[in-house]
Amino acid sequence: MIYNRKLNVQEKEVVQDNIKTLLDKYKLDTGKFDIIIGYRANDSYFAYAEAFVSGTIYKDTLEKALRTGELGIQVFIKSEKAFHSLKRILVEEVPEKYRGYFVKRDKNARDTYRSLSSNQGSRAGKQTIYDFL
User: Residues with Cβ < 8 Å from 124, sequence gap 6 or more?
Assistant: First the structure.
């Protein structure tokens, strides 16, 4: 998530170093993949990643937060080979009424995150970004 996204940490030198070290140690080489499947992310999810790399939430809080909001998964078609294997079956415009569902999911995700991050409890057995660097 961090490698392919722009987090709002330009002014935060220590956080930039955390991200670089994290990527140097754990980034997966996706060079040979045609398709990548993962959790779909929106702006509220970037706040979770920023909080983790800033050292302000624990790993378990990050994991719980990423599962909130029922965002589902996304599929990234990475290669020409995969793209040319796609078949157009149906194209429909999404009705405007579904925008409200997005707003509600986003609000619920943010509310759940605030609840998780304010109720972290003791540090015992919990990992922060610094345990991985």
Answer: none
CA-to-CA distance for 79 and 31, rounded, in angstroms? 10
Residues 11-49 pLDDT 10s = 788 888 888 898 899 888 888 999 998 776 666 677 788
**pLDDT average, residue stretch 93-113:** 81
Quote the CA–CA distance of 41 and 12 in Å, as a whole number: 22
Q: What is the pTM of this model?
A: 0.65
Q: How many CB atoms lie within 10 A of CB 110?
A: 18
Which class for 20: exposed (0-12), middle (13-18), buried (19 or more C-beta within 10 A)? exposed
